[in-house]
Amino acid sequence: MASLQIKLLTSLAKDIKSGQKDRAKAVTTLQSAKILTKSENLAGHYSNLKKVIVSK
Fold first, then answer.
1. What's the predicted TM-score (pTM) here?
2. Each residue of 18-52: pLDDT tens digit?
3. Phi-psi bin for 34: left (phi > 0), alpha (psi -120 to 50), beta?
């Protein structure tokens, strides 16, 4: 991953962690970043995140 992508993902994670937990907003944000697909699956490049994400 490029350095800029890492910084953006880190910033996104901090924002999500510090803010109110709103699943819909988080899903929308991750979809706009092309991390999640419209069917809420991880996009190809991010499939290794399955190891650390807890699903509903």
1. 0.54
2. 877 778 888 898 899 888 999 988 888 888 877 77
3. left
